[in-house]
Amino acid sequence: MSPKSRKPFHRAARGATLIVVVMLVTVLLGLVASLMVYAGGERVRAVASSRTGQRQSCAESGLQLARSYYGRNYSSWNTYLAAPTIHDPVRSTFNPTPADPFSTALRTANRALFADVDGDGEDDVYLYIRDNEDEFDPVAPNWRRDNDQVVVVGAVCISKTLRPRRSDGTQSPTTLALEGLLSYNGGGGANTSQGTTGTGSGNHN
């Protein structure tokens, strides 16, 4: 084979080798990118999991504060129930514009409904009250007035550090709330029942 005939062969071999190298590099880069995405997702899931217990503790502390606050202020229950846009964050047919726990205006005007539970100087919980269904047929429900000395009290964890985050690191609108029944016995003060858990803004119809 003459030197002239060997040159095209060598060029073709080098071109094929270069293509193989480029393909391998592309595959490796894809694998590295996939591993980085997976590792990032695992980190976010690990952080979210570690915060779950803290969020639960935040809401539980708030519920105890709600029981104490509304228990001490039994004489004002009907005043609170008559103002659901301030004291009730649960959306319903009765309360189509519920209180917004993240409203700066609400927080400024109603400081007693917000509390810092971890001592960092930031509000962590919003305390609320709503009526239970205490009317019987044929009387229509009246959610603005208590008839049986029993109400539902609750707390929403609004902590900036304990709220869940999306995969991109931004805060999720999802919130954690705990609530339970609070009864007034007339002489010995308020009694409480076991609480229930909920997430999100909630709906009650």
Short description:
This protein is α+β, with helices and mostly antiparallel strands. It is 41% helix and 18% strand. Strands 1-2-3-4-5 form a 5-stranded antiparallel sheet.
Tally of extended strands? 5
Distance between the termini: 91 Å
Rg on CA atoms, Å = 29 Å
Give me the secondary-structure category: alpha+beta
**What's the structural domain tally?**
1
* Arithmetic mean pLDDT: 80
Tell me the β content: 15-25%
Q: What portion of residues is helical?
A: 40-55%
**What count of helical segments does DSSP give?**
4
- Biggest beta sheet attributes: 5 strands, antiparallel
Please give the order of strands in the largest beta sheet: 1-2-3-4-5
* Overall 3D form: elongated
Order of helices and strands: HHHHEEEEE
- Residue windows where pLDDT falls under 50 for at least 5 positions: 44-50
Task: Describe it.
- This is Type 4 fimbrial biogenesis protein PilX N-terminal domain-containing protein.
- Keywords: Membrane, Transmembrane, Transmembrane helix.
- The protein is of the alpha+beta class and about 200 residues long.
- It has one domain.
- It is built from four helices and five strands, in the order H-H-H-H-E-E-E-E-E.
- A hairpin with a 5-residue loop joins strand 4 (about 175-185) and strand 5 (about 190-200).
- The radius of gyration is 29 Å and the shape is elongated.
